[in-house]
Structure to design on (481 residues):
């Protein structure tokens, strides 16, 4: 008689133990003629399938590299200063709509029931008590029972409302300009953090290459010492150089981690989230001409636009205050009923529905110099707004010249740094050949290694400097060159 065995594997995460299988399922399998071997095979398939499914679901999908535009979009969603500026712009826009609504006719459906105590007739000669009459005690009321149900259209015509609306328009435009200022400032911050991460990663790569070069040079030095070609001092100097490169790599990795976390604060709820960047430091944009920068700054600078709109708002505030000396005309039209009974027709058959119109002209006479002080107050604000506009324009001219020179010098420096990297690489290669041939010294090799590391690190810093200069120009011109 043949027997079949089933080796039970050690349970692990994702497998289904044999004891977890339901008794009816096992019974069904046995009753249908399945052998113990088939049953073990079924358990094995179920366990492996569960393990594979869990392993597949637990494997995280790699995140796509983050572009600069994506980083800016993410930062705009969480940065508090930009969020506050956005809220301010939304409030100013709503205030503009409120001011516009005051210039349009208002419609109200007015309903009112008024009860007034009526007059009582005196006692007659027969001694009977007086009866209530239709006359009312308050002369302003028309009947004991009075029903009012009217649609009322009203409009106030005055210069102050128009000036207030124009002022709210200017304030909304100024708020939008300040939002643009905040957006551009945020873009400059993200650009600096973004390329700082790229520069830190580049320095880590430089440190890795330098460590590998130091290790290779140490191996060559030990081989030459074994052959009696160099003294042991060269080996000691090579070991010190390798140890120094290891410390520089550790420091570079730490700086890179800090830069990643600083950028992660702007991008993710968890700043320690792992991510990669889609841009490299080799993609260097060109710098526009000074004339193009000047034209863009004059037409799209948000600081100047915000100051200009603030001055316009101050002008309309002065106009609104001065309209306090002028009269206001109020118009009102009513249609409906105002009768002793709530009905279209009165008991005698007359029609209760009707209309009335009213025009009111209020002429200001005396307000204890309140209007005069409001005009004086708004005039002071307009003067201050004019001064701020002038200062903003001067700062724009100075900042534009300063930032363009910074970007121009950074661009020139990048070309020189590229040449320095190429020269240092060539120098290190030739120095290594001379040392291998016994014509150079260990100090020359160490100096060539230091020169190359310094040139490559300076190039990474120079790239960040150039991108930051372009981002600062963007705060003045509105677009990244």
């Amino acid at each position: 008689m043949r027997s079949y065995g089933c080796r039970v594997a050690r349970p692990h995460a994702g497998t289904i133990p044999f004891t977890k299988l339901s008794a009816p399922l096992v019974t069904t399998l046995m009753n249908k003629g399945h052998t113990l071997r088939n049953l073990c095979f079924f358990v094995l398939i179920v366990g492996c399938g569960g393990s594979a499914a869990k392993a597949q679901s637990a494997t995280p999908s790699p995140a796509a590299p983050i572009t600069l535009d994506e980083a800016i979009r993410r930062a705009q969603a969480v940065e508090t200063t930009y969020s506050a500026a956005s809220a301010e712009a939304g409030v100013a826009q709503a205030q503009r709509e409120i001011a516009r609504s005051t210039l349009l006719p208002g419609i109200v459906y007015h309903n009112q029931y008024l009860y007034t105590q009526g007059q009582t007739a005196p006692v007659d000669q027969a001694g009977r008590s007086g009866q209530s009459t239709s006359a009312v005690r308050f002369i302003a009321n028309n009947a004991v029972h009075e029903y009012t149900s009217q649609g009322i259209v009203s409009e106030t015509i005055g210069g102050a409302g128009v000036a207030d609306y124009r002022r709210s328009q200017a304030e909304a435009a100024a708020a939008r300009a300040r939002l643009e200022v905040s957006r551009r400032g945020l873009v400059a911050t993200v650009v600096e953090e973004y390329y700082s991460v790229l520069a830190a990663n580049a320095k880590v790569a430089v440190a890795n290459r330098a460590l590998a070069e130091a290790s290779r040079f140490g191996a060559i030095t030990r081989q030459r010492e074994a052959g009696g070609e160099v003294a042991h001092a060269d080996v000691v100097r090579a070991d010190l150089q390798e140890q120094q490169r290891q410390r520089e790599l550790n420091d570079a990795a730490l700086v890179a981690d800090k830069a990643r976390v600083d950028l992660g604060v702007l991008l993710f709820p968890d700043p320690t989230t792992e991510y990669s960047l889609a841009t490299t430091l080799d993609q260097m944009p060109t710098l526009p001409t000074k004339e193009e920068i000047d034209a863009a700054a004059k037409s799209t600078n948000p600081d100047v636009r915000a100051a200009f709109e603030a001055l316009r708002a101050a002008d309309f505030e002065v106009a609104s205050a001065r309209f306090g000396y002028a009269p206001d005309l109020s118009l009102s039209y009513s249609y409906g009923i105002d009768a002793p009974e709530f009905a279209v027709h009165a008991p005698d058959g007359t029609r209760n529905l009707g209309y009335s119109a009213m025009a009111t002209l209020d002429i200001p006479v005396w307000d204890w110099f309140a209007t005069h002080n409001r005009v004086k107050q708004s005039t002071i604000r307009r003067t201050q707004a004019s001064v701020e506009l002038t200062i903003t324009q001067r700062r724009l001219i100075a900042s534009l010249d300063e930032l363009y020179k910074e970007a121009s010098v950074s661009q020139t420096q990048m070309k020189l740094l590229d040449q320095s990297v190429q020269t240092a690489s060539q120098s290190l290669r030739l120095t290594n050949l001379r040392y291998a041939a016994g014509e150079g010294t260990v100090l020359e090799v160490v100096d060539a290694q230091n020169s190359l590391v310094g040139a490559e690190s300076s190039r990474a810093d120079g790239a960040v400097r150039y991108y930051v200069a372009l981002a600062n120009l963007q705060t003045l011109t509105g677009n990244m060159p």
Summary: Residues 66 and 277 are 5 Å apart (CA to CA). The first helix runs from residue 23 to 31. Residues 109-120+130-157+327-363 form one domain. DSSP finds ten helices and six strands in the chain.
